[in-house]
């Protein structure tokens, strides 16, 4: 959609929310991160690079509100493997493009590069990410997030962090 530009205030709000989400994840503020999502939002990391029928496909992550809450609980519990010596991360999201915009929702695509350090090892992951952002005067929230890892069809090591 060529008429949609990144200077649109609705798009700017959506991008700011995506950057805020990245900062919360890097800072391990998982409870606050969880609250960024709408009640019916899905957080998906599919294996298939092309498909959009996530409910009928194999996914690394397919989280509704309940599953996000359980994932956050595991991340913050000191005895969980994902919480013990959790990876330190820094992520960059760029190359934003807008696929749809209205007064109530913005659909964005972006590229994410994530660098994680854990137990003497550095891991770099690249992904194409889509976000659907629900716009509201009471606060913008994430309605859907899909992270398509570049290597999703190969072995992806257990990470100890959220994408």
Helix and strand topology:
Layout lengths: L8 H18 L3 H5 L2 E10 L12 E5 L1 H12 L11 E14 L3 E14 L2 E14 L6 E9 L14
List keywords for this structure.
single chain; 163 residues; alpha+beta; 6-stranded mixed β-sheet; 21% helix
- Approximately how much beta-strand content do the residues carry? 35-45%
Shape descriptor reads globular
Q: Structural class of the helices, strands and pairings? A: alpha+beta
**Radius of gyration in whole Å, from Cα?**
16 Å
Largest sheet: 6 strands, mixed
End-to-end Cα distance, whole Å, is 27 Å
Number of helices: 3
What is the typical, i.e. mean, pLDDT?
A: 90
Helix-strand sequence: HHEEHEEEE
Question: Portion of residues in helices?
Answer: 10-25%
How would you portray this structure in words?
This protein is an alpha+beta fold and about 160 residues long. It is built from three helices and six strands, in the order ααββαββββ. It has helices at about 10-25, 30-35, 65-75, and strands spanning about 35-45, 60-65, 90-100, 105-120, 120-135, 140-150. A six-stranded mixed beta sheet has the order 2-1-6-5-4-3. It is globular. The relative contact order is 0.22. The model has no long low-confidence stretch (mean pLDDT about 90).
Summarize the structure.
21% of the residues lie in helices and 40% in strands. The protein has a six-stranded mixed sheet with strand order 2-1-6-5-4-3. The longest helix is centred in the first third of the chain and has 18 residues.
